[in-house]
Amino acid sequence: MELSIGDARVGSTVAGPDGAFRTSLAAASAGVGRYEVSLRCGASAVAPLDVVLVSRVDTGTSTLIVIVFALLLGGGLFARRVVSDAVDRRRS
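User: That's the sequence. What structure does it adopt?
Assistant: Structure tokens below.
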């Protein structure tokens, strides 16, 4: 059996005695999107293939951002209180 996306051959495999098969596709050059994978071995079959882009957020960086934000927020509130106290003292 030969598998292809468009005109590009992306894999091949042999079916077992029960007709089942499993294979990997060499679709690294395919960009993000939806494709039709064609199977040819006498008869033909077509199946959809969605190529997606997976991203990951590093938890260490996320934690650091949250800590820095909390420190800035706390520092801002503290500075506001200090300035407010200084203004109140001048008025008295």
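The longest strand covers residues 33-41.
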